[in-house]
Amino acid sequence: MIFKSLLPDAQIPNVDFATYILEEGKRRFAQNKNPNNYALFDCQSNQALTIHQLDDLTQKFASALYNKLGFKNNDTLLLYSPNSSNFVITCLGTLKLGGVVTFSNPAYNPRELAHQISDSKPSFIATCVENLPTLFEAINISKRNIPLSNIILIDAVEVKHPKLTTISQFYDSRPFPRFSISSFNELENKYAFLPYSSGTTGLSKGVILSHKNIVSNVIQTNIYATLNNWHNDPTQIHRYIGVLPWYHIYGLVICLFSGLANGVGVVSLPKFEMKSFLETVQTHRISIGHLVPPILINLVNEPIVKNYDISSLKFITTAAAPIGKELMINLANRFKEIKIVKIYGVTESSPIISCAPYWNNSIESSGILTCNQEAKVIDEDGNELDVGQIGELLFRGPNIMLGYLNNPSATSSTLDKDNFLHTGDIGYIDEFGNLFVVDRKKELIKYKGFQVPPAELEALLLGNDDVADAAVIGIYVDEQATEVPKAFVTLKSKHANLSESEKTAVSDRIREWVNSKVSNHKKLRGGVQIIDIIPKSAAGKILRRVLRDTYKGDNKLFKTTKAKL
């Protein structure tokens, strides 16, 4: 059966994303108690921007891109930077020219960044000074010809560079051809964002999100926000904290753009640090926190929380990674005045699929489908299942991606002929329309919201001189409220008859070798365990479930890393 949202369908306007965010933002901010209240506050530069100032700066950025650098409709810009007001200006300014924005993790190493550059083929890059060494090495690896003139520095605090232009020097006021949506077909098919989502069979994939996809998801999110009274009181000033990275789709669409479109001020932090997070909540009277489990576990456990006044916080949403029942109970007991709700989504759905409404008393539910959303649950043979039956979760709606960039086989295996997205997640929908996610069919590991593809780590391990075969799985660590990657390896014959102490030394050496070659979130925090044989099917597929079931009791390797973002 097809499950439909309990909410009435919303009208999706025939408008480009930048216009929707800025014009809807102006309308909503004008209704506020103080219409001149900032739309964005950058904690790094202490820059405050109203929605009108933000619009003006995006105009000037778009003008410069066009008049100084010759940016054209459909060109791609890589945004490779931490959160800042300049991040937002760059993103919206690029969209005003009909450009496509792809986002990259500032923690990427050159090899990882080179893959994204090769795949997305950006002609322009906006970044920060500290990222330049990695960026230049990645460009060399990718063999892309990107002139220095097409690299713009958007550091939150003004910097000087002998060869590169900074954003404040870059602005222009000359006219430019402002992009606008001319038809519903263009709304549906015009590329806007290109975030990268890791897979289990190789390197990360570019997720093509259209203007319709992301306009729809902001509307879907904000209808839910209105339903739950997040910021319905016009006599109050409401603020989001932008601490989740905006290169991640949850941070970008839900923390940033849904706030701006709702007339809610967004306060940006370049990264999460507990002290600065608490100071920001206290100083700016943050009312809503879109967060992830590792931050929540800090809120529960860190003694310094009691030193700050965070009474302004009324709502917290949690998404991007699984959260356990015990942590939800601890949060509810610790912060009795804060409503804490779960959200479910994936990059391919722009990202939100379901949210827990105010009447939902189940802490294990991920809520109800957002408006305009449909779902199916299927068994392993593709048969549709009924209420309460567990199977793979499929979703359809205006927020579902167009496909994967340059990857038709991955697209066809994820989007079926009826345009249902096969998530690879296992769950069910109960008689009240509540969605429950109980497992993941996909092998993707989620470390604190960041995606870690096992196949990438396995390929790397097989390049080690000591390793004969390898498998990587995710192990959930309660203390950190996250999965961590754990490797199982068999050793080459030269290591036959090792003592236990020698095996420990070899496994430590392998772990250190891998960790030196990958981004922080991909490190083997679960350790490296030497075994006799990697369990595989007759077809040669790694039987990860066997590894999980066999080794889940061996917990001593999984509790050595203190939780941090």
UniProtKB/TrEMBL annotation:
The keyword GTP-binding does not apply. InterPro entries: AMP-bd_C, AMP-bd_C_sf, AMP-binding_CS, AMP-dep_synth/lig_dom. GO terms for molecular function: CoA-ligase activity. Keywords: Ligase. Residues 456-541 form the AMP-binding enzyme C-terminal domain. Pfam families: AMP-binding, AMP-binding_C. Residues 31-405 form the AMP-dependent synthetase/ligase domain. The keyword Oxidoreductase does not apply. It comes from the Eukaryota. Gene3D superfamilies: 3.30.300.30, 3.40.50.980, Luciferase, Domain 3. Belongs to the ATP-dependent AMP-binding enzyme family. PANTHER family: AMP-BINDING DOMAIN-CONTAINING PROTEIN-RELATED, LONG-CHAIN-FATTY-ACID--COA LIGASE. This is Putative 4-coumarate-CoA ligase 1.
